[in-house]
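Quick log. Single chain, no ligands specified.
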Amino acid sequence: MLAAVPAVPFGIVAGIMGAQYGPVWGTLINVATSATAAALQFLAVRVLFQKQGRQFVTKFKRIEHFILFLERNAFLAVITARLLPFVPAPVINIAAAISHMSFGSFFLATVMGKFPVMVLFAILGDKLLFSSVSGMIWPLIIYALFLMTVYAGYRWLYMTKLSKPDSEE
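-> predicted structure:
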């Protein structure tokens, strides 16, 4: 359960899993272990520290605004953060746990958001073991294109939503 230890960069562990078990099994192992670790951390914080966490974030307006955004757009916020490999997983887990997000939404968004990046890590680990470093460029390019497509889709939906007049008027 190295995924539960924040000091261990899980991207490295995930790459090793890809090198050891191949991209398919490496991905499945990575998603299962990292999603399980996220769920355990979410539940621990929710049960033990949610009240204290809510009180703590009221001291910091930016964090409090982020938590409110997370609560209004919980599924989208978690899945988006999970797609970005540089966002620390414990931050996502803790923020979601102290918010009012349901566990089911958190877990589904976590699995869906972790899957693409875990595929990337497993492929990179496999490529590192069985090909040259230049063979690692294509998976990175494909993932970057994937992220740009997701962002473009999000922007399009956001702009479409903004351009519609309010139905309350």
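The chain has a mean pLDDT of 82.
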